[in-house]
Write a structure and sequence with these properties.
The complex is a heterodimer. Chain A is built from 8 helices and 7 strands. By secondary structure, chain A is an alpha+beta fold. By secondary structure, chain B is mainly α. Chain B contains 7 helices and 2 strands. Chain B has a two-stranded antiparallel ribbon with strand order 1-2. The N and C termini of chain B lie far apart (63 Å). Classes of the chains: A alpha+beta, B mainly alpha.
């Protein structure tokens, strides 16, 4: 298939960016979206132009490194990561607009690459449990009810790609935080630090310049791991409980 | 701004955006209760302007003699004004935060329901606020009669100015009804998202069942309020209610 690509180009963090249009011919529908960009980059390099910078790592949908705004949708038209999106989701003659995640807390580094270390700092502020390291404890020594284990697992699927922030009309990171708060809050190991965790994480989130939640559900719709919206409810509930417990 | 730094020192839940949302949700819950009561009260117009006036009078006599005459009404008005200030303050703070959280817009506007709903709440809220000022001036503060067909004398019952008659006179004008219908559309949409969103913010929607219930209640409240408020003006315009 033949495609017209409008791609955001930006030389550096402080440079003025612009949309550049490229024509790409003979794209196979079996290519992944990133392979399509690889082909374009090869052509650019052959012509002596700068290739388009974009993030990728595992290319099997589990690391959370890739993430592009494709025609106004985070990770494109399918419920998956950008690397697992294939060109069969597009048609011959399509115009595809590719932009980086847009958020104050995710500044653009170059072209389509954004700095998502704000997420790391949110995790650093409270998204962990404190344990003495050493030999792994016997896994059955702490029983976990099945329903709680399932919900913790469902929330732990978050890969931190940032699609929730990108899709949110307020650029809020609530789904990301809610996933971590729910994941750890459902498990016995997460209880000692539970109330401090939610307050610290939300405070760091606000400090990073993310917006507030308006419960639109755009985040959950965009999430490639299908984290449900109710983790944000859990986050709100834990914050209210933290106010009662911590004062 | 992106910071590259970890927040130092004590953090408190009361300074987070989530707490702002809690303020918005709890004041919103008060308004939901209030509009339901107000809507119920309005239906008194079907019993005539006199019954409507008596209902308004009863509101002033509530909890007398524990409270002075009009005491409860004024306490409730103060509570509503304070709640409105808190609701609007939280809304504008979060709105401005959201704007600075994404200064560079996407070239392709996503058709996602998310963007539409946020716009609907914010601009719908401003529509409601503007209308509210008009509404209060019209029926509470100045009691303005826009309908020249009704003389000051015609608006009186037993020698006293009747709010019920003012209501009848006002809604005999098509454009007044139109203004109210537009405000009702804004109110309905605000309630439709607000009731659900409030339940989510207050942490009440943790199970599939409670989520479904919150959605159902939101639909129901929006429908009941809009229909309940729309019926009296439309009935007056159609000449079904004369106030006598």
């Amino acid at each position: 298939m033949n495609l017209t690509l409008n791609i955001w180009r930006q030389d550096g963090p402080n440079a003025q960016g612009r949309m550049v249009t490229y024509q790409l011919a003979d794209v196979s529908e079996h290519m992944s979206f990133l392979e399509m960009l690889d082909v374009l980059n090869e052509q650019l390099v052959e012509k002596g132009e700068e290739p388009i910078a974009f993030d990728s790592d595992c290319r099997e949908g589990i690391c959370g490194m890739c993430g592009l705004m494709i025609n106004g949708k985070a990770h494109g038209p399918e419920v998956t990561t950008t690397c697992q999106l294939h060109m069969r989701s597009f048609h011959d003659g399509d115009t595809i607009t590719i932009e980086p995640w847009r958020a104050t807390a995710f500044p653009v580094l170059r072209d389509l690459v954004v700095d998502r270390s704000a997420f790391d700092r949110i995790i650093q502020s409270g998204g962990f449990i404190s344990v003495n390291t050493g030999a792994a404890p016997e896994s059955h020594s702490v029983p976990v009810p099945k329903a709680k284990a399932d919900r913790a697992f469902e929330s732990a699927k978050c890969i931190g790609c940032g699609a929730c922030v990108a899709a949110c009309p307020n650029a809020a990171g609530m789904l990301f935080m809610g996933a971590k708060v729910t994941h750890l809050g459902e498990l016995p190991q997460g209880q000692p630090e539970r109330w401090a965790r939610v307050v610290k994480m939300v405070s760091q989130h606000d400090h990073e310049g993310f917006g507030g939640c308006t419960n639109t559900g755009a985040c959950a719709d965009a999430c490639p791991k299908e984290i449900p919206l109710d983790v944000i409810n859990q986050l709100n509930k834990d914050l209210l409980a933290a106010m009662r417990v911590r004062g | 701004m992106a910071t590259q730094t970890l927040l130092k020192g004590e953090t408190t839940a009361r300074r987070t955006t989530v707490f702002m949302k809690v303020l918005m949700a709890s004041t919103g819950a008060l308004f939901v209760f209030y509009v339901l009561m107000h809507m119920y009260g309005n239906l008194k117009i079907f019993a005539g302007a006199k019954a409507f006036d008596e209902y308004a009078e009863h509101l002033r006599e509530m909890l007398v003699p524990i409270l002075p005459y009009s005491g409860f009404l004024w306490l409730f008005r103060v509570l509503l004004v304070v709640a409105l200030l808190v609701h609007a303050y939280a809304a504008f703070t979060l709105w401005s935060r959201a704007n600075s959280a994404r200064p560079q817009r996407y070239a392709v506007k996503s058709a996602a329901k998310g963007a539409a709903r946020s716009k609907m709440m914010r601009w719908g809220g401003i529509t409601l606020l503007t209308w509210l000022i008009f509404h209060l001036v019209q029926f509470t503060i100045a009691k303005v009669n826009f309908n020249g067909a009704f003389s000051a004398e015609a608006l009186k019952i037993d020698g006293h100015a009747s709010t019920g008659m003012l209501v009848v006179a006002s809604f005999k004008l098509w454009w007044v009804v139109l203004i109210y219908l537009i405000a009702l559309v804004a109110l309905g949409m605000h309630l439709f998202h607000g009731v659900w969103s409030g339940a989510q913010t207050l942490g009440w929607t943790n199970s599939a069942r409670s989520r479904k219930l919150a959605h159902t209640v939101a639909h129901l409240v929006a429908a009941v309020v809009v229909i309940g408020f729309a019926v009296p003006p439309l009935a007056i315009l159609a000449g079904l209610v004369t106030g006598k």
